[in-house]
UniProtKB/TrEMBL annotation:
InterPro entries xref list: DMSO/NO3_reduct_chaperone, TorD-like_sf, TorD/DmsD_chaperones
Keywords: Chaperone
Highest rank taxon of the organism: Bacteria
Stored Gene3D superfamilies: TorD-like
Protein name: Molecular chaperone TorD
Keyword Chaperone: yes
Length: 313
C-alpha cells in the first residue's frame, strides 16, 4: 500500500487510540495499537500509552494492567504486587461465592467503591459489574430477597435431587457432555475422577493449601470449584513474595507465571465456561447470573494476560 495512505491512516488510528474511542476492552485497544504501528511504522511511546489508559478509565486496575502490553517496559514492584493482590482477591471472591451461602457481611463487603472498581476492572465487564452492584443493594434492603438468595444456593449447588442442581465439581465437566454422570450420582467419583482428585490433593499438599470454607460438607472433594479457584488465588499470591524494589525482568517471573498458566490450562480453562453457562441458565437470582458472567469475563482476560506475559519473557 502507498506510504502516502499509510501515514494518515496510522495517525487516524493513533488519534482513536489516544482518545479512547476504540471501545473499552483491552482487545480493542490492542487492535488499535497494532494498526497504529502497522500503518505508521511507529510504536506508541510509554507516555502516550499511559495517557491512553488514563483517558479510558479512572479505574486504578487499568493503570497497572497497561504494563502487560508494553513488551520491553519494566514494571515497578509495587504495581506488580498490587496487580497480584487484585487477581488473587478476585479468585478468592469467586471461590467464596460457590463455597457456601452468602451472608450480609460478605454482601456488604462487595459494596465498597474500591471493590466495585476492582471487580469491574479485573473482570473487564462493566455491565455485569453494574448489574451485580444493583442486585446486591436490592438484596440488602429486602429480607425476602436475601432469603431467596440463600435458598437459591442450596437448590443450585448442594441438593443433587433438585431439578436445577448444578454439580460444583470439575470432574463432571471434563469430557463429552453426553457422557457426563447422572446428576443424582455426582457425589460419587469414577476412576478418572479419582485420579483427578488425587492429583489435586497432591498439589494442595505441596503448597500447604487449605480452603477457608473446607468445613462445608460439599467441599470434602478436592475437585470442588471453590477449591480450584482458591488454590489459583494462592498461586497468584506467591508473586508477592519477591523482594521489593526489583523489576519484572529480574524476577523469576516466567517460572511463576508458567505455574499459574499450567494450572489454569489444566484445571480451570476447560470447565469454567461450561459451569458459568449452567449457572446463568438455571439460576433465578440475578446475583448468581451476574457472578457467572463476571467469572467468564475474568477467565477470558486471565488466559489472555498469562499468554501475553509468557510470550514477553
Amino acid at each position: 500500500m502507498d506510504d502516502r495512505l499509510n501515514r494518515p491512516r496510522g495517525r487516524l488510528y493513533g488519534l482513536l487510540l489516544c482518545a479512547g474511542q476504540g471501545g473499552k476492552s483491552v482487545k480493542a485497544l490492542k487492535t488499535l495499537d497494532y494498526r497504529f504501528r502497522r500503518y505508521s511504522g511507529l510504536r506508541l511511546s510509554k507516555h502516550v500509552f499511559d495517557a491512553c489508559w488514563r483517558w479510558r478509565s479512572g479505574n486504578p486496575y487499568f493503570e497497572i494492567r497497561r504494563y502487560l502490553y508494553m513488551g520491553k517496559e519494566l514494571i515497578r514492584f509495587d504495581d506488580f504486587a498490587k496487580l497480584s493482590r487484585y487477581r488473587s482477591m478476585i479468585y478468592n471472591l469467586f471461590s467464596r461465592v460457590f463455597a457456601r451461602k452468602v451472608d450480609r457481611e460478605f454482601l456488604e463487603s462487595l459494596m465498597s467503591r474500591e471493590i466495585i472498581d476492582i471487580i469491574s476492572g479485573v473482570c473487564e465487564n462493566e455491565e455485569s459489574s453494574g448489574k451485580l452492584t444493583k442486585t446486591i443493594r436490592n438484596i440488602l434492603s429486602n429480607s425476602d430477597k436475601f432469603f431467596e438468595v440463600e435458598r437459591e444456593f442450596e437448590g443450585l449447588f448442594v441438593v443433587p435431587v433438585n431439578d436445577r442442581f448444578i454439580p460444583p465439581y470439575i470432574s463432571y465437566y471434563l469430557g463429552n457432555k453426553s457422557e457426563r454422570i447422572n446428576l443424582e450420582d455426582v457425589k460419587g467419583v469414577d476412576e478418572g475422577g479419582v485420579a483427578l482428585v488425587n492429583k489435586l490433593e497432591l498439589l494442595y499438599k505441596k503448597l500447604n493449601f487449605t480452603l477457608r470454607d473446607a468445613s462445608e460438607v460439599s467441599l470434602k472433594r478436592a475437585d470442588h470449584i471453590s477449591y480450584i479457584l482458591g488454590f489459583m488465588a494462592a498461586l497468584v499470591g506467591l508473586e508477592e513474595r519477591h523482594q521489593p524494589g526489583q523489576v519484572k525482568k529480574q524476577l523469576p517471573f516466567k517460572e511463576v507465571i508458567s505455574n499459574e498458566f499450567s494450572f489454569f490450562n489444566e484445571f480451570i480453562k476447560n470447565w469454567i465456561n461450561l459451569f458459568a453457562d449452567e449457572v446463568a441458565e438455571r439460576a433465578n437470582s440475578p446475583f448468581y447470573v451476574e457472578m457467572a458472567r463476571l467469572m467468564q469475563s475474568f477467565a477470558s482476560s486471565e488466559q489472555s494476560d498469562l499468554e501475553t506475559l509468557l510470550l514477553q519473557n
